[in-house]
TrEMBL record:
Pfam families: DUF3159. This is DUF3159 domain-containing protein. The keyword Transmembrane applies. It comes from Streptomyces hokutonensis. Keywords: Membrane, Transmembrane, Transmembrane helix. The keyword Cytoplasm does not apply.
Amino acid sequence: MTSLDKPTTETVDAEDSEQDVRAVTEAALFEAFGGLRGMIETVLPGLLFVTIFTINKDLHWSAIAALAVSLVLVVVRLVKRDTVKHAFSGVFGVAFGVVFAMMTGNAKNFYLPGMLYTLGLALAYIITTLAGVPLIGLILGPVFKENLSWRTRNPGRKTAYAKASWAWGLILLAKCAILFPLYWWANTAQLGWVLVALKIPPFLLAVWLTWVFLAKAPAPIDVFAEMEAEEQAEKERKAAATAEGRHRRDA
């Protein structure tokens, strides 16, 4: 290998830095969206509901089973002292679905709150991006410890967040375009199985696109580290001023 073929220190450092950014991005997405366990907690209640309803057409038992498994998932996380935000969101979603279905006596309405939430979330991604404050940046900014620094100090990341938010918004709108016609035309079992089938693939596509956009973006600005550095510098300035004052008095 000639000297021209050998990787330079700068090249190695750049590759290491890129790998670090990708690793941080993967970890942040895993934390923000719950990973494999979060996906299971999202799918399991709806899967149990549609399975039981398909077998016996009993709205009450289907709803009770879905709500019960959601509560069990929360209890398991509490016992293990894990973060419960994904499990709790699942409980609230299932609870709203159960209330809608029970009040109307229509099992299909078990899915309506979640569908409306998906539509609202899709619009939120699109509207916030048009407003210059993409929602995915608001979600991931604290996870990356950059807060809102990407808005004014890191335009490359703002662009990546905008692209990711567009991806989320359009993917969720496409999902709604499939589900809402089925809500009117299909029966409860058909709608339920389509919903279960569409839980994970669109989500994974949106997460993957987010990873692609952010992995190519500049590294986040750690505003927490900046604040800590500023506090440390202020302490050192005060210590230096105190020492100088003592020196002058002694002189």
